[in-house]
Specification:
With 271 residues, the protein is α/β, with parallel strands linked by helices. 40% of the residues lie in helices and 22% in strands. Strands 1, 2, 3, 4, 5, 6, 7 and 8 form an eight-stranded mixed sheet that branches. The longest helix is centred in the C-terminal third of the chain and has 17 residues. It is globular and about 50 Å long.
Amino acid sequence: MAQKSTAYTHGHHESVLRSHSQRTATNSAGYLLGSLLPSMHILDVGCGPGTITIDLAVLVPEGQVIGIEHSPEVLEAARTLAAERGLKNVRFATGDIHALDFPDNTFDVAHAHQVLQHVSDPVQALREMRRVVKPGGLVAVRETDFSIMTWYPDIDGLVDWQKLYIQVARKNGGEPNAGRRLHAWARQAGFDRRSVTATASTWCYNTADERAWWSSLWADRTIKSSFAQHAINKGHATQDELIQIAQAWQQWGAEQDGWFAILHGEILCHV
């Protein structure tokens, strides 16, 4: 099958990896952990810098975890982290979620975190994840939903950011409100609705340290990452407008009562 075009809105700028490197199995895949067994073989699709992948490998010491990523540039960091943790049951490779390079019925679990929102055909991606999972196994996916991110206090520049991000992501062929669609995409991919458990969970940033971290990485992403390039090159925003949005992020981060919440949709699909 020919590889379908994907345009990753964020790219792999340091500000993006700063965020992704804080993701763990506990804070990003908690809905899945109770279903894992020590001998399971897991495919982690769109693994990025590998922090979730490596945590999953710790939880299946008698099994194996393979992390795949569309872009090879971030995988060296993942391999380095695995070596630092002394793990022998995890490996990383490039791959295309629309056409996974594995035989049918290979894995006990196929997992993806914040991936389907960026791909051109999320239903085909779920079909592929389903294909490579053994009967009785699981497809596990978690995605955010940009339209229902919410914050306090009200800052106009963050509303501008939210609208702009959604425009840019959709222009790139993605769906930034993927979280609310996961169960429907799973049904379209061939899962019986009764075999799909749909849940939701959140991230929340409120302490001084959390606000400083979240606001600084988004201020940097807004003017330095691939998101900025896409926004300018495709006529969605000017450099000055991006600078104003970055300043709005810094303003929110300095608010002692600042609060930011992110809702994620989750699905556990039984094969």
